[in-house]
Amino acid sequence: MNTNIDVNQMGLCQMLRAIDEGVCTTEALINACFDRIDARELEVGAWQVQRSREEYLAAYRAQQDFYDASLLKGLPLGVKDIIDTEEMLTEMGSPIHAGRQPIEDASCVALLRAAGGIVLGKTVTTEFAYFKPGKTKNPADLSRTPGGSSSGSAAAIADDMVPMALGSQTAASVIRPAAYCGAIGYVGSRGEFSLRGGQPLAQSLDSLGLFARQIEDVQLLRAILLRQPASIAPASAQLPSCVLLCRGESVGEVSPEMQVATEKAVVLLQAQGVKVIELDAGERIKEMVTHHINIMAWEVCRNLVMESFHKEQLSGPLAALIEQGLSMDRATYVASLAAVESGREWLWSFAPEADAILTPAAPGIAPLGHEATGAPHMSRPWQAMGLPVINVPGMVDDNGVPLGLQLVGKARQDDTLLTYASGLMPLFV
Amino acid sequence: MNTNIDVNQMGLCQMLRAIDEGVCTTEALINACFDRIDARELEVGAWQVQRSREEYLAAYRAQQDFYDASLLKGLPLGVKDIIDTEEMLTEMGSPIHAGRQPIEDASCVALLRAAGGIVLGKTVTTEFAYFKPGKTKNPADLSRTPGGSSSGSAAAIADDMVPMALGSQTAASVIRPAAYCGAIGYVGSRGEFSLRGGQPLAQSLDSLGLFARQIEDVQLLRAILLRQPASIAPASAQLPSCVLLCRGESVGEVSPEMQVATEKAVVLLQAQGVKVIELDAGERIKEMVTHHINIMAWEVCRNLVMESFHKEQLSGPLAALIEQGLSMDRATYVASLAAVESGREWLWSFAPEADAILTPAAPGIAPLGHEATGAPHMSRPWQAMGLPVINVPGMVDDNGVPLGLQLVGKARQDDTLLTYASGLMPLFV
């Protein structure tokens, strides 16, 4: 059996079903993950901290009865390095926290661990989940950024190194790297998951995120994180009957190839009988981008307190964001909060029959180079409104570089959104 | 100079002005706090962990230039023991976390420390800020509960041990102990303050709280926590022109003496020309109590993850809450979230001219005994709606035991609320 190829092709639930059916062993799958990492990590750079194969297998074998009886069987999990882990450093991509060893697992890590996941390592994050990149390269094209801030988690999933990874999004930190790398990335509705032990950046914006290879994997991980009945059986898929189309131009700059991909998606959906309504938003969605920036600037400098006292150890963009927040008038912040809240109602009143919004997940393909992580504006409006979002991969440009489209759901209707994403994804691949 | 009497009578800003004016020294005020603690702590039991006088003075003197130039001058701060402190244990009132030493300060602690506050100690919390009491007794009547969960912070302020203390509220954990002990307790609008490093209980409900002796002290501390210009000059006071009166019976059980206090407050306000409109809410406020419980139960078991795996070390009520959350249907939780959100609009549409809501802060005086912390229902509706609230002390029953009334403001209009509380408080004292 060529386990490398199997892992390349299998999602988490597929792996778990294969174990159940005796098609392959857990150890073979673990080894396949490490084989892939051994072959690719020097180039991709997805990992900040990493267990060795020997340590991993020893941990698995030491509690093999537990793992064999568990839901996740001891399969490997990647954890973004701003999420605390009790047995690995959590350094948040900043020299300020070099060597920082948390005393506890974040609640999301504790739940996945209890379900039988094993933390293979911490994935690279940008500095405090903001802009300054880590070492990660885009596995779809190593000359390009993987996007950020959950750079390592997106790359590890897209490059088939692990079948599940945790991330977080305050602006575009899950959807953008998922779009650039060609992975599934899901951001929960605001407040949906416990963020205990995840380092906060902006309390009105932070959401937990998940990366996986199949939508059913996201559904499984979501169920575990919500302590709901979880199943590895194939999940049902369904197309939305109506989507609201938000063309990139209503949000901000968008590339010609993304315009083509969006148009192609519309044609594919209409061919399936899905009604597509244009979101003729005027300037209001663009204004949400500004409101998001205001909220983020105000809150970041009130969360990164100790860090703000060490500006000489911060990147220029983060120091500037903190300065923006400190000099901001409180009325601006409160007005942006109010605008975002009223936007949540306005958005769906525009087309009450719409099941979800379809819109570019990023302005285009991943930019060349590794000095920046690309523009976040395509995510800011939905993140400001606290809506659940999923990047649906599959589209590519003429050179095969990923182009992501995102599906935005109604607040707290994450399960419905994931069902629609299951219906949509086969059309794009 | 009898520093004990001075401290008994002085709020934080009064102390700071006295230092500025050369009326007394910082060390005299620090010593007065320790004198009071030495005299009373054995009976009151406000402190979980405490610096000794010698340690405190050594810390102060080691950086005296910094403190003398600072806003808070090195005066003592109490920190609820679910808020992380890098130099003191944070045990959350639970044997599960005995000896737990955080690696970092919570952001609120870092900000007050940077402003020149010194953490005198950690104040007693109930188990994970829920129901199971710690050792604290009510300083106004030692035979009674201080209320919870911020029991130690409320008692330390009411008993004049420190001039400022941090707490938190998920149900009634600031307002109830403030009402029972006769302290000012303020709960910020949801999302108002960073909760980084404060242990989360329920993400849709948790708020930071402050305890102090004067409203101007709350205003000062709030400004520091928001990194806004802060002043120790006396703040302006203003009565609301119109209050919405929510009689205790619309929320739940209320004692005859609280009914009398509420009526007395109405008469006092009307005598000042304040318009009082009865909130004729039918059952809707009572329903908010149920929605609050649903939201809390769902979220607590998804935050206290590791703890839920050690049920044998949890109190009966907390284990039951976790059980309730684990067996709850998700639709119930989502419906309660929606009910609460629509309630936020409904509440003020009822009387758009109202500046604030006046309502009992607790069902009555603090109950006798120390096995429980009293009923939280009077706070649940406002907390569920994420509104800023302040307990305005001053009223007492025939035996001099405190009766608290709370003023509830509009979301994110905390500054306005505090101004009204400044106007109101002199009427009650």
Structure description:
Two copies of one chain form a homodimer. The first copy, chain A, has 429 residues and is an alpha/beta fold. Among the domains of chain A are: 3-225, Amidase signature (AS) enzymes, CATH 3.90.1300.10; 285-336, no CATH class. Chain A has helices at residues 3-9, 12-20, 26-44, 53-62, 64-69, 107-114, 151-158, 175-181, 215-225, 256-271, 284-303, 305-308, 316-327, 330-349, 380-384, 414-428, and strands at 47-50, 76-80, 118-123, 164-169, 184-187, 207-212, 242-245, 275-278, 356-360, 389-396, 402-408. In chain A, strands 1-3-2-4-6-5-10-11-9-7-8 form an eleven-stranded mixed β-sheet, with helices on both faces. In chain A, helix 9 (215-225) packs antiparallel against helix 16 (414-428), helix 11 crosses helix 13 (316-327) and helix 11 packs across helix 14. Chain A is globular. The mean pLDDT of chain A is 96. Chain A binds chain B through residues 100-105, 107, 110-111, 114, 191, 193-196, 199-200, 203-204, 225-228, 299, 301-303, 305-306, 309, 326, 330, 334, 337-338, 412, and chain B through 100-105, 107, 110-111, 114, 191, 193-196, 199-200, 203-204, 225-228, 299, 301-303, 305-306, 309, 326, 330, 334, 337-338, 412.
